[in-house]
Amino acid sequence: MSGASLRGERPGFTGTLWREIQPVYAEIISHPFLRGLTDGSLPKERFRYYVVQDALYLREYARALSLVGVRSRDEESLLMFNAHSLGAITVERSLHDGFLKDLGLGPHDLARARMSPTTLAYTSYLIKTAATASYPEALCAVLPCYWIYAEVGRDLSGESSPEPMYDKWIQTYGGEDFNALVDAVLDTADRVLQDATSRQRETATRTFLTTSRYEYMFWDAGWRLETWPV
Ligand SMILES: Cc1ncc(C[n+]2csc(CCO)c2C)c(N)n1
């Protein structure tokens, strides 16, 4: 059962990683943005802000995944990360295009949109780490994006949102296919971290915590409609 294979019950180093971010995950799952998605009370304006920022985020995340792919050590990982890079742009963009249309936004609105402080900080950190850190650390930087969404999708999938758009979002990440994809990435991470030095594992753990915090901040920015202070 994929249900039991994720999270802290996972054997290996990824189980340790999850335990490290338990307090962050607890804040994410109880955040008013996610509670509002589930009970349908999230104001549309905040969802619109999130969807636009996410479209900007995904372009950069796809680049980070390709960088991790380039730096991987076997063909399977190269293929996997590049396939996910493609997926981040195609599958998720079509999802977002649907949402944007439903929200009354078009390509022009997206072209005019600028990154929030959080989106810029998160994506810049991802690209820097994917490009310049050790391979184990680069891999750990991109993990929370997959893993936290899979866990959120699973935790929320039992509940169907009364708002169809929000329900569609929840079902996207709550499916078995997505769980299997995340499991494959986590298995890869366990193999890589097993071969890493203890110093690299330590740094990779800190980086995993940092990008998990950015995942929290991304929802929080949507909730606060974050802007640049000056
Ligand atoms: C801020 C933010 N974090 C994670 C995801 C989810 N996500 C984006 S790409 C990808 C894997 C490859 O397609 C996953 C799981 C998101 N949409 N936005």
TrEMBL record:
Alphabetic keyword roster: Hydrolase, Thiamine biosynthesis
A single MF term (Gene Ontology): thiaminase activity
InterPro entries per the UniProt record, alphabetical: Haem_Oase-like_multi-hlx, TenA_E, Thiaminase-2/PQQC, Thiaminase_II, Thiamine_Salvage_TenA
Pathway: Cofactor biosynthesis; thiamine diphosphate biosynthesis
Active site: 215
GO cellular component: a single term: cytosol
Keyword Hydrolase among UniProt keywords: yes
EC number: 3.5.99.2
Catalytic activity annotation: thiamine + H2O = 5-(2-hydroxyethyl)-4-methylthiazole + 4-amino-5-hydroxymethyl-2-methylpyrimidine + H(+); 4-amino-5-aminomethyl-2-methylpyrimidine + H2O = 4-amino-5-hydroxymethyl-2-methylpyrimidine + NH4(+)
NCBIfam families linked: salvage_TenA
Role according to the record: Catalyzes an amino-pyrimidine hydrolysis reaction at the C5' of the pyrimidine moiety of thiamine compounds, a reaction that is part of a thiamine salvage pathway. Thus, catalyzes the conversion of 4-amino-5-aminomethyl-2-methylpyrimidine to 4-amino-5-hydroxymethyl-2-methylpyrimidine (HMP).
Annotated protein name in UniProt: Aminopyrimidine aminohydrolase
Lineage: Bacteria, Bacillati, Actinomycetota, Rubrobacteria, Rubrobacterales
